[in-house]
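step=encode ok
step=design start
structure_in=
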């Protein structure tokens, strides 16, 4: 209101002028009004942090928030990919976005991510915890505890840390948190026990945090996608494109909706949970799975895919 009030004062002073001075003053008044309007508008624009936003679901989510004129805090571990998504976000709107190169499993990096967001924009309205890892394991693996630690550090511990750091800022804006989970948190799957356990724990954390933060006006939800078509299988799992195509054909033949999920399907759900349309929704796990929960997918097809993977390359960000 202060900036609008200043504009009105300048406008009132014009009546005391005449001739060219009055014309100049009128033009100046219009400029001040335009400047003040945009200044107020920018101050009111919301800010979203999307972790692991350099590819897949995170990237699609960041760009879609940008189209809604959110300030975007893009996060990833590779500078070139972070900068690429920042440029895409700024091309999608005229609103400023920033990139923060950080490993969210490191406490100092997590703190820097939140601090940079506040330094740049002065507020946080939405935290999307998207970064995640997966690994193929069996109970007989000698390194099972190491795998467990790596998965839990990213899929749960980092989320808790970021929520802890963000809540004081989210309380001021009555903001919200969206945790990107998985249907793996709801159903067991062969040889992915550590991943399933991490997502089940994340869903319970979401529900507990929703109870705790509800009285403060902060909503907390998770989104639980099934398999989503990205380049992850080819670039990070050692799978061939032919193998991925065969796996996706199994999905098309067995999911009730007869198609493979896309990153945009999940991003739309995240935007919904972050919007006023979901203002009475908290502690929910929104499943985006094309009806997969109710489908009878042949286990052998899934097992063939899993056993064909290069197990040495199974840890990476953005696998959800």
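sequence_out=
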């Amino acid at each position: 209101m202060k900036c609008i009030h200043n504009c009105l004062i300048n406008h009132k002073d014009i009546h005391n002028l005449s001739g060219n001075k009055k014309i100049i003053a009128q033009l100046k008044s219009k400029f001040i009004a335009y400047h003040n309007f945009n200044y107020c508008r920018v101050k009111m624009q919301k800010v979203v942090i999307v972790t692991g936003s350099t590819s897949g679901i995170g990237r699609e989510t960041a760009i879609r928030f940008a189209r809604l004129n959110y300030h975007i805090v893009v996060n990833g571990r590779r500078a070139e990919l972070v900068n690429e998504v920042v440029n895409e976000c700024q091309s999608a709107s005229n609103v400023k976005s920033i990139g923060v190169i950080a490993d969210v499993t490191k406490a100092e990096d997590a703190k820097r991510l939140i601090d940079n967001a506040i330094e740049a924009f002065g507020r946080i309205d939405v935290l999307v915890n998207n970064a995640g890892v997966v690994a193929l394991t069996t109970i007989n693996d000698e390194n099972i505890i190491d795998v467990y630690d790596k998965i839990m550090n990213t899929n749960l511990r980092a989320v808790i840390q970021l929520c802890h750091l963000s809540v004081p800022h989210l309380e001021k804006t009555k903001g919200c948190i969206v945790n990107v989970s998985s249907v793996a948190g709801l159903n067991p799957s062969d040889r992915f026990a550590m991943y399933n356990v991490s997502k089940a724990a994340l869903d319970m954390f979401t529900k507990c945090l929703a109870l705790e933060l509800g009285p403060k006006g902060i909503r907390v939800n998770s989104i639980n996608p099934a398999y989503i078509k990205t380049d992850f299988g080819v670039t990070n799992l050692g799978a061939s494109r032919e193998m991925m195509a065969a796996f996706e054909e199994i999905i098309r033949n067995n999911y009730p909706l007869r198609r493979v999920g896309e990153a945009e399907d999940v991003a739309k759900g995240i935007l919904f949970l972050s919007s006023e349309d979901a203002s009475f929704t908290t502690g929910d796990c929104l499943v985006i799975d094309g009806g997969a929960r109710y489908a009878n997918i042949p286990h052998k097809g899934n097992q063939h895919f899993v056993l064909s993977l290069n197990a040495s390359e199974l840890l990476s960000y953005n696998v959800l």
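step=design ok
step=annotate ok -> The first strand starts at residue 47 and ends at 50.
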